[in-house]
Amino acid sequence: MTFRCPAALTAPLLLLALLTGCGRDTDPAASPEPRAARPAPAAGPATTPPTAPPASSASSVPPSAPPSTPASPHPATTAPEPRPPSPVRPTARTTPAAPAPARTPAPVARTGGGGGRDGRATGTTLRIGGWSSGVVRGGQETIDACRDAVQWSGPDFGREDGYKMRTVVVVGHDYCGFGQFATLPVGTVVTVETPREILRYRVYARHLTPGRGTPAHGLYWGDLTLQSCVGPDTGFSYLVRT
After folding, report:
1. Distance CA 188, CA 119 (A)
2. Are 220 and 168 in contact (CB under 8 A)?
């Protein structure tokens, strides 16, 4: 059985077939038409990439690490701790010397007042409290030597007599350490140690006269007179034996 299209449909079908055949390329060598490329999406406004900041000064560049020291091929060893020094034993050089004993020269014969040019030892020590000094006979040169108190005149200690003006006179410069001879308070006890005995004297009066080293004639009293300078003046302490 053959299907036949109605006449009303035949004409439109032919027209469609013709249009379809005209739209194709009849050249067998021609390649099929490529598809149009899909348009790229629209890009946004162009932006300028940020410019790298200029290189800063050498001070802002971090310093490079110092070259490392190559490790020693030998294993590290620990240095031994130092031993403390041995205590130094005192020797004769480091041991302080003992103080020299006080001079105790042998007594000499009695001499006249005023003394000689050289000091002559009497083996006598004069003590005032904790202070002491040797006593030698002598004159001005011995006084100026500043070594000992000087018995300027009078008999030996223990043979004095103030009532008969037999006064022992002991003097010394103030700048030699004998200034207290002129300023002893009344009542002060002075001890004199001689080779024969120990004598004690007590201050009963003082006197001050103008001038340094002025003549002291008539100013020696009592059993013992101690004399020294006091500033621009000369002072005397008078003592009686107890």
Report:
1. 27
2. no
Q: Length of the chain in residues, anyone? A: 242
Domain ranges of the chain: 120-241
Residue type, 99: P
Sign of CA dihedral 101, 105, 106, 110: negative
Q: Could you give the CA distance from residue 238 to residue 220 in angstroms, rounded to a whole number?
A: 8
User: Which uninterrupted H or E stretch holds 127?
Assistant: strand 120-128
Task: Name the phi and psi angles at 237, rounded to 5.
Answer: -115, 130
Is the four-CA dihedral 113, 119, 120, 123 of positive or negative sign? positive
Cα 156 from Cα 137, distance rounded (Å): 10
DSSP lists the bridge partners of residue 168 as 224
CA–CA gap between residue 180 and residue 188 (Å, rounded): 11
Rg (CA), the chain: 66
The pair phi, psi for residue 154, each rounded to 5°, is 100, 170
Second-level CATH architecture of 120-241: Beta Barrel (2.40)
Report residue 224: phi and psi, to 5°. -145, 130
Backbone region of residue 12 per phi and psi (left: phi > 0; alpha: psi in -120 to 50; beta: other values): alpha
> pLDDT (tens digit, 9 = 90+) per residue, 56-91?
443 444 445 444 444 444 444 444 555 655 554 544
pTM of the full structure = 0.51
pLDDT single digits (tens) 137-193? 999 999 999 999 999 999 999 999 999 999 999 999 999 999 999 999 999 999 999
- DSSP letter, residue 163: G
pLDDT level of residue 8 (50, 70, 90 thresholds): low
Cross-strand bridge partners of residue 234:
209, 229
